[in-house]
Amino acid sequence: MSTEVTVIEVGPRDGLQNEQTPVSTEDKIELISRSVAAGVRRIEAVSFSHPRLVPQMADAEAVMAGVPRVEGVSYIGLVLNRRGLDRAMAAEVDEVNVVVVATDTFSTKNQNVTTDRMLETWDEIAAETPAGIRRSMTIAASFGCPFEGETPPERVAEIARRAAAAGADEIALADTIGVGVPAQVRTLTRLVREAAPGVPLRFHFHNTRNTGYANALTAVEEGVTVLDASAGGFGGCPFAPAATGNIATEDLLYALHRSGKTTGIDEESVAETGAWLGTVLGKPAPALRGRAGGFPQGRTS
């Protein structure tokens, strides 16, 4: 089992998209710059969604114009349609991520299309993304839907099969509303690997019901080496009732480092960033690592 785990910082996009306090372009670039300086090498920087629907992401192009271009750092842009892909390419992202919601009701509320129609959009985007740009699919509501209840694991596997058929470079399974438990992580990991053999798998957890970190460690035990997290533990989906924050990057790093995993990311620096972001948003960061400190003292990566 690999000791290296890649942690993708999703705070600039998923961490901020549901926040009511406007965040300036300069502060978004500062958040990204802090993450790069801490050692993060994959960052979900922006979403190319409609500004009316997700106003916090209205300055996506301006953010991408100001991010530090450092060798080895890859910037991910969320795209939901061909227009979004065109904007992402013009902004020079390194990866495009397409969200496909696993249930029709949530998909319609979130993206105004059914799951099958979004899969058609995925096929189009995957086919038209230029060579050299990574294409990933995030399967949202993989663990449960706020409107339909349990999400059938077989449906998630079916969507993953479609992702692989179109040439996905990575598939992410998202617990969008934070209802998942470790047993589901094990089941979905095995089903998706069967459905999409050879396609790298990553997970995106929310800590709504305090299971996010247990789920993340379970995924690592299953051999998954890529996890999403948000500095400070901010985040949530604007279209999911009562959806609270992502697992906090600094808290996840603590759990991984104490479990003998390496990430290349400075834990203390991220904790400081989480606290700073709380001041920008005008509320305390949900993360706990920044309050309690590390252990043993001096262990930061």
TrEMBL record:
Name the Gene3D superfamilies on file: Aldolase class I
- Top-rank taxon of the source lineage equals Bacteria
Extract the GO molecular function terms from the UniProt entry. lyase activity
InterPro entries the record matches: Aldolase_TIM, HMGL, PYR_CT
Annotated keywords? Lyase, Metal-binding
CDD domains reported in the protein's UniProt record: DRE_TIM_HMGL
The Pyruvate carboxyltransferase domain sits at 5-271
NCBIfam families xref list: PRK05692.1
UniProt similarity note:
Belongs to the HMG-CoA lyase family.
Concerning PANTHER family, the annotation shows: HYDROXYMETHYLGLUTARYL-COA LYASE
Q: What is this protein called?
A: Hydroxymethylglutaryl-CoA lyase
Q: What is the lineage of its organism?
A: Bacteria, Bacillati, Actinomycetota, Actinomycetes, Streptosporangiales
